[in-house]
Design goal:
The structure is a homodimer. The first copy, chain A, has helices spanning about 55-65, 125-140, 155-170, 175-185; strands at about 10-20, 25-30, 40, 45, 75-85, 90-100, 110-115, 155, 185-190, 205-210. With about 220 residues, chain A is an alpha+beta fold. In chain A, strand 1 and strand 2 (about 25-30) form a beta hairpin. The longest helix of chain A has 16 residues, at about 125-140. The structure holds a DNA duplex (27 and 27 nucleotides).
DNA sequence: TTAATAGTGTCTTTTAGACACTATGAC
DNA sequence: GTCATAGTGTCTAAAAGACACTATTAA
């Protein structure tokens, strides 16, 4: 049986997004060594063939190890490939994107959450990967419940609308939005008519949760 | 610098679709050796790091070598990975899908074009790849000019409608379809009001070509 | 002239947007 | 009570579907 080509390096990487104070942010860490020492980079690592069933399992393991995350929304984005910046080396990077509410993240993993509108130079081709992930998020967000993956399990209608506006980058009509979400049965009210633990909110609102925590897509835009 | 893991095999594969007598078909070849000897498989091969700039270049080279195709519509689909059927081996398969009109294909490459509704058992996980490619084609076909990539450069409106119906799997309303295509400026008439070299056609029709040969997407369904 | 498909016009239904209005709770 | 935001109702505009109708050409 043929040996694998030793010049081909296989890595998995994830653009992990969350909302910090209404800003869409991506998780980055600072490289401590190598060609890109000092630059910021996406979360990533190598596949462990005897431990990981597939690349999805590999990036799941890495997200747990490097960000402390479990059961996060995760979807394959695209595979980037070609000569990387190391001489004589050619790599295949299977990129994923992940969405999580801020309240599921914990400190101590050395990650920075950087506003996607204020990204510094990134290591490798991570700039490209982040842009591709943002494009996917914005496009798919228009006809799915994807933006809701950035919210905690329970949320109000105004919060849902705000996250859609953030992701889509455009204001939405309030009553049309409610109508659409309702018709699509995207959410269901939390039974005991809970109102939120208000902060600067002027008035409590009904809490909802996703009717189905999984990704749902529709054939029309919201 | 770390060596690449010798258990990881990297391959590129393509589900190449075309229309044969109004049936959507995928290009398959029969395996002549190996674990799946005798089974049918997608077009694919290995990456040549010193020859291929990236995996897209690799599959482009392979499509030229194994199907005689150049400048075909090609898009990355998804990467499939995990233990393949060989003991001790774990592979990463970067899958693409390609669309071509039949008239650009030539004989002599040992390919069979098999109706996607009558697929035999396939080698490896190629069944899964074909299904994923079909799903992509059908979904994306609903809001893009993707189905037109299956037609020759010049085509009539009825032909365009037929290929959309084939891809989407549902009949379309004639006047609404024309209206939509026209509004979107998807096509432009071929200047000298050419009518087609009729075969069993009862009446000639205006020829059109894509306004832009590249993939175009819209934010609403057709 | 007839058969058959190409292509148009128009009415109806559905969907989306605008926006005024009512409701509720903090203060 | 007032203010601010939550949430509803209703009118209008735009898009999609249905379908009858006209146009053109081969035979």
């Amino acid at each position: 049986m043929a040996q694998a080509d030793p010049r081909l390096h296989v890595v998995v990487e994830a653009a992990l997004f969350t909302l910090v104070d209404d800003r869409l942010c991506v998780a980055l860490h600072r490289m401590r060594r190598g060609l890109f020492k000092g630059a910021m980079a996406l979360i990533g690592g190598h596949v462990h063939p005897d431990e990981d069933a597939d690349t999805r399992a590999a990036i799941t393991r890495i997200l747990a190890d490097k960000a402390g995350l479990h059961d996060v929304f995760l979807e394959q984005l695209e595979t980037f490939s070609g000569k990387d910046h190391h001489p004589q080396r050619w790599s295949v990077s299977i990129a994923y994107y992940a969405l999580t509410p801020l309240d599921r993240l914990s400190e101590g993993f050395g990650l920075e959450f950087v506003d996607v509108d204020r990204l510094p130079e990134l290591a490798f081709d991570h700039q490209r990967i982040v842009q591709a992930a943002l494009g996917r998020l914005r496009r798919k967000g228009a006809y799915s419940n994807l933006p809701a993956m950035l919210l905690p399990a329970e949320f109000t209608f105004p919060e849902l609308k705000a996250v859609y506006e953030k992701v889509l980058g455009a204001p939405l009509n309030d009553s049309a939005f409610r109508r659409k979400i309702t018709e699509l049965k995207m959410v269901e009210p939390v039974p005991e008519a809970r109102s939120p633990a208000t902060a600067e909110r002027k008035r409590p609102a009904q809490l909802y949760r996703l009717a189905d925590r999984r990704l749902a897509e529709w054939d029309r835009t919201l």
